[in-house]
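thought: fold this chain, then report.
action: predict
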Amino acid sequence: MIVVDTNIIAYLYIHGDQTETVTRLLAKEPHWAAPLLWRSEFRNVLTSYLRRGILSLIDVLGIMEEAMNLMAGHEFQVASLHVFSLVERSRCSAYDCEFVALAQEKGTVLVTTDKQILREFPDIAVRPDIFLALNSSD
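observation:
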């Protein structure tokens, strides 16, 4: 199991420069986890595509359902104390620290493309391409 942030989930469903890498990530490690917060963040991502007319309401509802099916059973609450202790020692938002906290609690990595998280938590955060390179022989 790996923890993924909302951007990784979005790259899977919204075609972009990271989609191919994230698709390979899912094939390599199909057990993705995230704090419950991912749902609200992902809805916000989809909202921007809906408002710009890139996706229709039917599209965003379908994507949201697919993503929720992917993450079903792998969504977790994180302790406020843990989140705030990470906030206190970093410049990351509480939102970002929820993902870091979950990865720490689960004893796994956080796969992300967020530069600030990668910089502030290099012991637990890893880019998807690096994760794939490090786990290519498995």
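thought: worth noting. The longest strand covers residues 32-35.
final: tokens above.
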